[in-house]
What we know:
Blueprint: H1 8-58, H2 72-118, H3 124-143
Helix pairs in contact: 1-2, 2-3
Amino acid sequence: xxxxxxxTNITWFVENARFQVVLVAVLALLxxxxxxxxxxxxxxxxxxxxTGYALAIKDxxxxxxxxLDRSEIGKMGEAFEKMQEALEGKKYVEQYIQNLTxxxxxxxxAIRGSAELMAEPMDEKQxxxxxxxxxxxxxxIQDI
Length: 144
């Protein structure tokens, strides 16, 4: 004895299930793509802000610090801001030292020139003029 069941009911179920599986797979792919886009946007947005901030500083601007989240990118941005402040402080000190050096060189050159000229024979009037110049320039250095 043989028992058989018609396959038309099973074939319809398989075809219907195949459509549902493909539909679920396509929907899952769309949801995964949307989720991936949102995650990449969430990650790259603060990086782009930080990049713009760094490029503006490179161009000599003083932009406001961008609003970043509290992730590692935010901590990196805070480190960039502290680095910028340190570099600006260093630049100020370098410029101050350059100005100070320039201000001291002028009177020092005048003192050296007067001292060299005083080593040569000259009358008392010229000698006292060079001595006064040395005295005035030394006071100028002291004021600096």
